[in-house]
Design a protein that fits this description.
Largest sheet: 9 strands, antiparallel
Number of domains: 5
Strand order of the largest sheet: 50-51-52-53-62-59-58-55-56
CATH class of the largest domain: Mainly Beta
Strand content: 35-45%
């Protein structure tokens, strides 16, 4: 009996194995797991010899061939080839199976041989999965040899136009995984699913080796394996359609990315299983409604999106599931709900993560700014893209090329090939129901142009370069886009800087000048300042702008900008915080906490109310952190509780001390107080030298007004009791006043009328950059700001060591040290070879400019003018532009200041600062 049972068990086991699909990787599975193959490169680095290479990989990143950026002229390129060889074995049991060899992506033309025989026609096109049936070429149970000849540049001119002359790095090689799939001779080759939000379900089932199949069963299962619905259909052709209706499915959307497992079973006339195939799917309905908007499950959405290339400095276009998870999580952390696959289809695992975590996707047929794929190769590659990607619920629209690269003969083919009939976009064009204009200026957002009835949907906007664009300008843009019903959102250019580690330059990072440092993130996903600006502006929780004054009653007006989520699913944590003084280690104390809840439907506005602690006005700041239902922090907002004057009064409680002494020369006033010696110009009152004992503190040549020269009317000095006053009055009665106290403190009062249409306003000093070690401050931070990028910083206690990062070009240490910092209350400047000193700012809304950021080698329109000098105290600062537009084109926050002196501060701006050089 035991022998019979064992024999039956083995039979059933072998039977089930025969019906299942098996996968055997010949390469590694991604950048983080590779397999070495034999390799011969024809030209460039390490060419002319047989060696080994990691597969998958881009061969340049492995030290072969030559680097090319898409703009390189053909005569400057090496059209190297790579020959790959790999020996492998397959089980003897595969003798009676259909075995396909699958290439997920090869750049660019691939000729494949198995055991010396061609597997099929040469495949052309880099970003598309292709496969060959090699069943008759294999020797099951014995050693086999795979040989692949790869041409970096295609033999098809249209592919080179589309893929090799684009605005991105051009790599070569087998850059995505290679594997074998073994199936029964009669099998389900693939399925195409359309699952709608109302439960309607249909699928086209493609059967290979159609012979004995009579029925297909489709089971809709939860991810844990529970069957929720079952649909059946008879089979009488190689392609059959199975359909039905599922009752009340949990729908997929970017906020609730619910998915199911669709299991397809191919049965013979006896009901025996021939083959089984499964896909993860989502029930959702996408509509593009004319002169209205883009709807998912009946809800009109706005896409808060970014364009993304598949790129890594170490691996080029080769990726991994871990890298995809990291990228999508970073997008979700910025409160994005959409991503555009610019300018080619991505790896499957990236789409899987978008499905799982909730990002809507524009999937794109490759092209760049010129008519690209010809009709034949374009149709073939489109078929491969749609067959590969069709079932991902995250994909809501297709892109036919990019920026004039579409082949209009293929427009209708998308609907023919796609069971879901998703709409097609032409990025950068007014096409069909949408206007996807790229890089419009702010004024065009009024949507009063020639296509004002179209859905406005820029597939690229606010082009980043170095530290410009992206978050800079987004606040103005988004207010306009959010409030216009016909604006469906848009996609920032681009996700990350694309600087490659040059294997021919000792791993030096190269972004091809200003072609590729365009990202919100650095090349290794370092977070630049715009990351946090975007996070705040695109947070689904929006706090109405307000300041905390003594009359604060604990209430905030908020808006729910989710599309599907009630704010009762979020948590709000409020903290009242106190901060240490400049002379103590950086510390903060949380004095009181409160957990808040609010019931607020999507799109609604309401009030959230705090219980004010009895002594709330004694605290320094209020912070509120919002967290979504999945534990992801949406944003943290912070508000100073005390005005600067009140906070500085707490910190500076000393008496004035003894009377300073003064010595006059023909041109200078030399003032001694405590252990300090100050030298002032008698001509204009500027400080010329500061010494603490014998040690020089090299702050000098200030204060000087930053916006235009002012003629001195007179400069005088006098004692008021034990205090020395040095006062300079200018012709328009602007005034600078020093007050020197016997305890060593020194006050600066500034009273002036700014120039009309000025970029910045305030006063500045010289301070040698070589003498700066770091800075500690109380104010907004830790990132620098611009006039059109004020969001994304928090009020708190911050500290930074000096760095000379040029955003997107060199250094890559963030946050950058140099630049403008907002809402500063006090700062401690840490000196090198000179004593530290402190500044206390009594006035509201003052910016501290700390040194001048170095210019990139090719700054374009992101180069901005900074005030002269090195350390400045400013009432106003200037904006930064994008790669293609000057700052003035990006909206009101980007424009220079305009003053009517009769209406602002009685005609004058005021500023008070206390310096402590002790």
């Amino acid at each position: 009996m035991k022998i019979i049972q064992l024999t039956l068990l083995l039979f059933l086991s072998n039977f089930l194995l025969a019906q299942n699909n098996e996968t055997q990787y010949l390469s590694g599975t991604g950048a983080d797991k590779t397999v070495n193959w034999k390799f011969f490169c024809s030209a460039g680095m390490n060419s002319g010899k047989w060696t080994t290479i990691a597969v998958p990989s881009c061969w340049e990143l492995q030290g072969f061939g030559a680097y090319n950026y898409g703009h390189d002229k053909y005569e400057n390129r090496i059209n190297e080839t790579g020959t790959y060889r790999y020996k492998f074995n397959v089980p003897a049991g595969w003798q009676n199976k259909q075995v396909n060899i699958v290439f997920d992506g090869v750049m660019t033309d691939a000729e494949v041989k198995i055991n010396g025989k061609l597997a099929g026609p040469i495949h052309q096109g880099a970003f598309y999965q292709f496969k060959y049936d090699i069943s008759k070429l294999l020797k099951p149970g014995k050693e086999n040899q795979l040989e692949v000849l790869v041409n970096k540049h295609s033999g098809n001119w249209s592919i080179n136009e589309a893929e090799r002359q684009a605005d991105f790095w051009i790599f070569g090689g087998i850059f995505r995984p290679v594997y074998l799939e073994a199936k029964p001779k009669e099998n389900i080759a693939r399925v195409a699913v359309d699952a709608r939000a109302n439960g309607d379900f249909q699928a086209n089932v493609y059967i290979s080796g159609f012979k004995n199949a009579v029925e297909v069963i489709a089971e809709i299962q939860t991810l844990s394996g529970k069957t929720e619905s079952k649909f059946e259909t008879a089979v009488n052709a190689p392609v059959c359609n199975v359909s039905g209706k599922m009752a009340s499915p949990k729908t997929w959307n970017p906020e609730f990315p619910n998915r199911y497992k669709a299991v397809f079973k191919l049965l013979d006339k006896n009901g025996a299983l021939i083959n089984q195939y499964s896909e993860l799917i989502g029930f959702r309905t996408v509509e593009v409604r004319e002169s209205d908007g883009i709807y998912i499950n009946g809800v009109r959405i706005k896409m808060q999106g970014v364009c993304r290339h598949t790129f890594n400095p170490k691996y080029g276009r080769t990726s991994s599931k871990a890298l995809s998870i990291e990228a999508v999580n970073l997008m979700k952390d910025m409160n994005m709900n959409a991503v555009r696959m610019s300018h080619y289809p991505p790896d499957k695992h990236f789409l899987d993560v978008c499905d799982s975590l909730g990002l809507v996707v524009l999937d794109e047929l490759t092209a760049w700014q010129k008519p690209s794929y010809d009709d034949v190769v374009g149709r073939k590659l489109m078929e491969e893209m749609i067959a590969h990607d069709v079932n991902h619920p995250s994909i809501i629209l297709w892109d036919n090329g990019n920026e004039g690269g579409e082949n209009n003969n293929l427009n209708d083919d998308f609907a023919e090939l796609d069971i879901q009939k998703r709409k097609v976009l032409h990025p950068w064009q007014d096409y069909d129901l949408t206007n996807t204009l790229h890089y419009s200026d702010y004024n065009s957002l009024a949507l009063d142009g020639f296509s004002k009835r179209k859905i406005f949907f820029p597939t690229e906007f606010l082009h980043g370069l170095y530290d410009g664009g992206l978050g800079a300008g987004l606040d103005d843009y988004w207010q306009m886009m959010w409030n216009n019903p016909l604006a469906a959102g848009g996609f920032l250019w681009v996700f990350a800087d694309e600087a490659v580690e040059r294997t021919d330059r000792n791993r030096e990072l190269d972004s091809d000048g200003n072609h590729a440092p365009d990202g919100i993130l650095g090349p290794y996903n370092e977070k630049e300042g715009s990351f946090y600006t975007i996070k705040e502006i695109w947070s689904p929780v929006q706090f109405e702008k307000r300041y905390i004054s003594p009359e604060f009653n604990g209430s905030f007006r908020i808006e729910n900008r989710y599309f599907y989520t009630n704010l009762n699913k979020c948590t709000f944590d409020a903290e009242w915080v106190s901060f240490s003084s400049p002379d103590k280690n950086r510390t903060e104390e949380v004095n009181s906490r409160e957990n808040l809840k609010i019931d607020l439907a999507p799109g609604q506005k309401g009030m959230i109310q705090l219980k004010l602690p009895e002594n709330w006005q004694k605290f320094d700041a209020l912070r509120i952190k919002a967290t979504d239902q999945y534990g992801r922090v949406l944003n943290t907002w912070s508000w100073p509780v005390k005005y600067p004057e009140a906070k500085i009064k707490e910190l500076l409680t000393e008496t004035s001390g003894e009377k300073p002494t003064i010595q006059e020369t023909e041109k200078e006033l030399i003032v001694k107080t405590n252990k300090l010696n100050f030298t002032f110009s008698k001509t204009d009152g500027t400080i010329q030298q500061i010494k603490n004992g014998d040690r020089l503190i090299p702050l000098s040549n200030g204060p000087v007004f930053v916006a235009g020269e002012k003629k001195v009317k007179q400069s005088t000095h006098r004692f008021e009791d034990n205090v020395l006053v040095i006062e300079t009055v200018f012709e328009n009665n602007d005034m600078l006043k020093w007050t020197v106290f016997g305890n060593g403190l020194i006050d600066l009062d500034v009273n002036y009328e700014p120039n009309n249409n000025c970029l910045f306003a305030g006063v500045t000093f010289d301070y040698p950059e070589k003498n700066v070690v770091g800075i500690k401050w109380l104010g907004n931070g830790p990132y620098r700001v611009y006039k059109n990028r004020m969001k994304g910083v928090e009020f708190g206690l911050w500290e930074k060591a000096y760095n000379n990062t040029i955003t997107g070009e060199s250094g890559f240490k963030y946050p950058e040290f140099k630049g403008y910092h907002s809402e500063v209350y006090w700062a401690k400047i840490e000196g090198k070879d000179s004593p530290d000193f402190k500044v206390y700012i009594h006035s509201k809304d003052i910016f501290l400019r700390m040194l001048t950021p170095a210019d990139p080698k090719a700054p374009a329109r992101t180069k901005i003018e900074y005030p002269k000098g090195d350390i400045s105290f400013l009432n106003g600062i200037n904006a930064i532009g994008t790669k293609f537009t000057d700052a003035s084109s990006s909206g009101p926050q980007s424009n220079p200041y305009q003053f009517n002196s009769a209406k602002i501060h009685g005609g004058k701006l005021n500023m008070k600062i206390t310096f402590d050089f002790r």
